[in-house]
Design a protein that fits this description.
Elements: H1 4-25, H2 35-64, H3 69-118, H4 121-125, H5 129-148, H6 151-171, H7 173-179, H8 182-220, H9 222-227, H10 231-284, H11 289-330, E1 352-359, E2 368-375, E3 380-384, H12 391-398, E4 406-411, E5 414-415, H13 421-425, E6 428-431, E7 440-441, H14 442-446, H15 455-464, H16 468-472, E8 481-482, H17 491-505, E9 509-513, H18 521-535, E10 539-543, E11 555-560, E12 563-568, H19 570-576, H20 579-592
Parallel strand pairs: 3-10, 3-11, 6-9, 9-10
Antiparallel strand pairs: 1-2, 1-4, 4-5, 7-8, 11-12
Helix pairs in contact: 1-11, 2-3, 2-6, 2-11, 3-5, 3-6, 5-8, 5-11, 6-7, 6-11, 8-10, 8-11, 10-11, 15-17, 17-18, 19-20
Length: about 600
């Protein structure tokens, strides 16, 4: 029984590859009406390739040897028309099949992007952005190289191969059988090399994903790398990943490089066999010179499709490796799908309730345990506590970035799991400590959550956020183009634009994550004034690292180890002389030094 292991593994790989191919072919279904035309052109092109050697061989026996010059000229004219038709058919098949494949691949890219956008945050907690980009770009490009550019040739050569086999067997059965003796050897050789190539190409797809992830991470952290003298270490780590990718590709190329000469050798062997036996038949009168000539031409044509198909087959191994990675991503569960009976969230009044909420990012470890809180409409709730206590988790559950492990989160007494995510988040605003701006105009960044807002509405939001005056001082005002992550705006200016973004959607529930940190004093005053306007009349949750910013909160919740250990107003908690009072005293002492 020991020997069954590799066989079972090989069968599983073959089954997986067939499943991957079937799934890929499902993407052809939208083009069912176009496929018959493409296949007809493929068959026409193949037929013109097959008929040429037959006519040339026939002309030797029936025209040239008999001195029929007129017939020969007419035959040459017919051949010219046939080959012109073949060129037109091949051009048409390449264009049509290529067009179908490019649209198919665009559909595949769209599916990947939609999937990435719809995946829960828990997926991104364990995935690297660079590897996801590699699947969307590198893996799809590998599929494009294998299928998008050569699929038309592969189909044409398949039909040509079938036609050539039929023609050879019809002209002379003995020579036809002799020529096909090498086919089993070719199939065996191709299968052997394909297995080796498939294993190596899987490694190349994985290593390029690792390399892309490392590259994306290091480019985004160049400043930190230089500040902490990590540049040389980053270079060494990149060298290791780059070397792994290089070695995997070298091994894959070595397999491919050995494969083509093997096919050439079999081609030469078959040609020699046909020439030797065909010559013998011609000398003995069992075959004509024209038949032997036609066979030699057919043998050359016979191996050309096999070479192309074999090369395509080995190249397809890289594509299958890429498709496996793509489909594994598409198969990731969207854990936070809307419930089948989910309804639209009605206009929010602003009451937020946590009822015995428990939550863990992994089933083994809870981050929150038995959390209960009620925020009435218009109240400001401050969340304080050490890093890792669970403050950000509370915020994530309100937005339903994650689902609770136990209990319920309700807004206006409606469980957030019973409404659509879009209708819920449409009515919740968020201003983070490090807000992300995008490449585009200032106006587009403000309207990020309200794409249909008018320019007048954008200006009003900017005025309420104390950023209108700054924007109008820019060279193109609201039409000024920003770079990646909002460059060249300062941290404070990005924060004001983010506040304007929140103002524009006019949320009933607002989330703030220490929006005044890491900015200068003058800008902080503008931000504080803008936030005060934004908070007015709205239910708000404020993650506070500086306790001086939450003295006016209606409730202060002190969170430690996933539990609310203290709650009350700032004055009440200071009077209790508990955890909050100690934190506040420490910050006051640090500020006075």
């Amino acid at each position: 029984m020991r020997g069954t292991g590799p066989i079972v593994a090989s069968e599983e790989k073959a089954t997986q590859q067939r499943s991957t191919l079937r799934r890929f072919l499902q993407y052809l279904s939208p083009y069912r009406k176009e496929m018959p035309i493409a296949i007809a052109m493929v068959m026409l092109g193949a037929a013109t390739q097959v008929i040429g050697p037959f006519l040339l061989g026939w002309s030797i026996d029936h025209l040239i040897q008999r001195g029929n010059l007129t017939g020969l000229l007419l035959l040459l004219g017919l051949l010219a028309l046939i080959y012109i038709l073949g060129v037109w058919a091949i051009r048409g098949q390449i264009w049509r099949v290529g067009s179908i494949m490019q649209r198919l691949l665009a559909h595949l890219r769209q599916d990947i992007f939609v999937k990435i956008q719809s995946l829960p945050l828990s997926f991104f907690d364990r995935s690297e952005a660079g590897d996801l980009m590699s699947r969307l770009l590198n893996d799809v490009n590998t599929v494009n190289q294998a299928f998008g550019q050569t699929i038309a040739q592969m189909l044409g050569n398949t039909f040509s191969l079938v036609g050539i086999v039929i023609a050879m067997l019809a002209i002379n059965l003995q020579l036809g059988l002799l020529s096909n003796l090498v086919v089993p050897l070719m199939i065996f050789t191709t299968g052997l090399f394909a297995r080796w190539a498939r294993a190596r190409f899987r490694v190349t797809r994985q290593t390029i994903g690792d390399l892309s992830a490392k590259l994306e991470e290091d480019i985004g952290s160049v400043r930190e790398a230089q500040a902490f003298n990590r540049v040389q270490m980053n270079i060494e780590e990149f060298d290791l990943l780059n070397a792994a990718n290089r070695d995997a590709n070298v091994e894959a190329v070595a397999i491919t490089a050995a494969f083509l000469p093997s096919i050439d050798f079999l081609n030469t062997l078959a040609t020699a066999a046909v020439l030797a036996y065909g010559g013998y038949l011609a000398v003995t009168g069992a075959a004509t010179i024209g038949v032997v000539t036609a066979f030699l031409l057919y043998v050359q044509q016979f191996f050309r499709p096999i070479q192309i198909l074999s090369q395509f087959y080995t190249q397809a191994q890289s594509a299958f490796a890429g498709l496996e990675r793509i489909f594994s991503l598409l198969d990731e569960p969207s854990q936070l799908n809307d419930a089948p009976n989910a309804t639209e969230m009605p206009p929010i009044q602003g009451k937020v309730t946590f009822e015995h909420v428990a939550f863990g990012y992994t089933p083994e470890k809870l981050v929150l345990t038995d959390v209960n809180l009620t925020a009435n409409p218009g109240q400001m709730i401050a969340l304080v506590g050490p890093t890792g206590a669970g403050k950000s988790t509370v915020i994530n559950l309100i937005l339903r970035f994650y689902d609770v492990s136990g209990g319920a989160v309700k807004i206006d007494d409606i469980d957030v799991r019973s409404v659509t995510q879009a209708s819920l988040r449409r009515q919740i605003g968020i201003v983070l400590q490090d807000n992300i701006l995008f490449s585009g105009t200032v106006a587009e960044n403000i309207a990020f959550g309200a794409s249909h807002a008018t320019h007048a509405q954008i200006e009003i939001a900017a005025q309420l956020a104390n950023v209108h005056e700054f924007i109008t001082s820019l060279p193109q005002g609201y039409a000024t183009q920003l770079g990646e992550r909002g460059a060249p705006l300062s941290q404070g200016q990005r924060q004001l634009v983010s506040i304007a973004r929140a103002v524009l959607i006019d949320p009933r529930v607002l989330i703030l994550d220490e929006a005044t940190s890491s900015i200068d004093t003058r800008t902080e005053a503008l931000v504080q004034d803008a936030i005060a306007r934004l908070l007015k009349g709205r239910t708000s949750f404020v993650i506070a690292h500086r306790l001086s910013t939450v003295t006016q909160a209606d409730q202060v919740l002190v969170i430690q180890q996933g539990q609310i250990v203290e709650r009350g107003t700032h004055a009440e908690l200071v009077a209790q002389q508990g955890v909050y009072a100690n934190l506040y005293a420490l910050q006051l002492g640090a500020a006075s030094k």
